[in-house]
Design a protein that fits this description.
This protein is of the alpha+beta class and 455 residues long. Helix content is 27%, strand content 27%. It is built from 12 helices and 17 strands. An 8-stranded antiparallel sheet has the order 9-8-17-16-15-14-13-12, sandwiched between helices. Strands 1, 2, 3, 4, 5, 6 and 7 form a 7-stranded mixed sheet that branches. A two-stranded antiparallel sheet has the order 10-11. A hairpin with a 4-residue loop joins β13 and β14. α1 packs across α2. The protein starts with a helix and ends with a helix. The model has no long low-confidence stretch (mean pLDDT 92).
Length: 455
């Protein structure tokens, strides 16, 4: 319901998606407002068009006050049929090229009913409208944190008990344009868990072996004369034990080579993931885009994720990237898939992926167990599984599956705690991120202070 609330107001009012509103609001809506009286559905839509959505260049928007939302389930003989929401929201005027201006605050109570898997809004009370206590320009504490550190935008997704319960995007796309709920972020190496899960699904379906030699499908020309290429398997690659460097182009002579025997120790390698991608594409005669769409994107309901700047990419929603001084970095567009980097996605979509991973329904117990197994030790309380780093020694007897991503102007983090099925993701489009992470992790997120202290 927290997620439903954020989507409802962002799509319905902030973006004026009236077609969406029409589907989600009951025909016999009852809307009680302490200043503009009672409204049925017809009058509600008339007022929305007239007062909220007449001018996209200057319009009212709504933001939920952090920590105010409460949800109370409604049952009938033990069966969930609805929910009551209560909270406080702030209203702003949004004008292009300017900071949002805080105009008023109000409380709300909403009644939702459940129709199969869809939630329908039936009744709303909107009351206690009043002006903010200050006339100065307002920024939320998080927006101020971003501004102070020259990081324009941040997206946060929170999982609780295996469900994505919050999606929130703060700041701006480019230093001026407010970042929408469905901002598209480049997430760098957070691509790797998505690719790894595609491979694990193929293995789980019996289409590929976890310890199957890959040389029968692909041999990189640079290492064809090195017999160690016959040792490469999906397990060795997904646990970063190939012996490859991260990227061949970073060191002369810019050719792929083994720096140690495969399977003997850990060394993080994007080259390894790309090697596995090419082997799989040769084996199945399909591109990784097609395989991932079939085995991950579609079942996880990831409808706004892509490997590269294809024709579905909405550039107007892209969070442009900034260096540690707040200077814009020229956008580099990619036009082919990379299994290790450059995925373009939204907070909601990646949150859906994390839901899909953690709920144990997409992989067999055996393959899920291999994913979270300590395949190789990094240091005390830190291991690598298959596609994820594993951090142990959290309180509450928790351990975490974590991955991060880092490119110029990109910093991302995703962590899942399998025992509680809690987790979160953070997307940032700037370089000067340490204080942002420290603040958000230590004050806001589940076991976040412990995670920050493990860095």
């Amino acid at each position: 319901m927290k997620k439903q609330d954020s989507i409802f107001f962002e799509r319905g009012f902030n973006r004026c998606d009236l077609e969406y509103l029409e589907k989600i609001i009951a025909k016999d809506l009852k809307f009680y407002h302490d200043q503009s009286g009672f409204q049925n559905k017809k009058l509600f839509f008339e007022n929305t068009r007239k007062y909220i959505c007449p001018d996209s260049d200057k319009k009212p928007i709504r933001k939920l006050q952090e920590g105010s939302l409460k949800v109370f389930p409604l049952y009938n003989n033990g069966e969930l049929y609805g929910a009551i929401q209560k909270g406080t929201h702030n209203f702003y005027i949004r004008e292009k090229g300017k900071d949002d201006i805080w105009t008023s605050t109000a409380k709300f109570t909403s009644v939702w009913t459940k129709n199969k898997e869809e939630w329908i809004l039936n009744e709303v009370l909107s009351y206690d409208h009043h002006k903010p206590n200050t006339k100065s320009k307002q920024l939320s504490a998080i927006n101020q944190l971003l501004s102070d550190n020259k990081v324009p935008a941040m997206g946060i997704g929170i999982l609780e008990n295996g469900k994505l319960t919050k999606v929130q995007v703060y700041g701006s796309l480019d230093g001026e344009k407010t970042a929408p709920y469905n901002t598209i972020f480049k997430v760098a190496s957070l691509t790797k868990p998505v690719f790894a899960f595609t491979v694990l699904t193929l293995i789980d379906k019996g289409l590929l072996g976890l310890d199957e030699p890959l040389y029968q499908y692909w041999i990189d020309p640079d290492i064809k004369n090195d017999e160690r290429h016959k040792k490469l398997t999906p397990r060795i690659i997904l646990s970063h034990q190939t012996g490859f460097p991260n990227w061949r182009y970073l060191k002369e002579p810019k050719k792929l080579e083994f720096q140690f025997d495969p399977g003997t120790k850990y060394q993080y390698s994007g080259e390894g993931f790309e090697y596995l991608r090419k082997a799989i594409e040769h084996k199945f005669n399909k591109k990784i885009e097609e395989l991932t769409n079939e085995y991950v994107f579609k079942p996880a309901k990831m409808t706004d994720t892509r490997f590269w700047w294809d024709t579905t990419m909405d550039e107007t929603r892209y969070a442009q990237n900034f260096d540690n001084k707040g200077n814009k970095i020229p956008t580099k567009k990619y036009y082919k898939a990379n299994s290790a980097a450059n995925l373009l996605t939204t907070v909601e979509d990646y949150g859906r992926f994390m839901e899909y991973v953690i709920n144990d329904t997409s992989l067999s117990k055996n393959i899920f167990g291999e994913m979270i197994k300590h395949q190789v030790k990094l240091e005390d309380n830190s291991y690598f599984g298959l596609g994820w780093q594993i951090l142990t020694n959290f309180s509450k007897n928790e351990y975490g599956l974590i991955h991060t991503g880092k490119d110029p102007g990109v910093s991302t983090l995703a962590i899942i705690f399998p025992k509680s099925k809690n987790g979160y993701l953070i997307f940032l489009n700037g370089d000067n991120v340490d204080k942002v992470y420290e603040n958000i992790l230590s004050k806001e997120l589940y076991l976040g202070l412990e995670l920050w202290n493990m860095r």
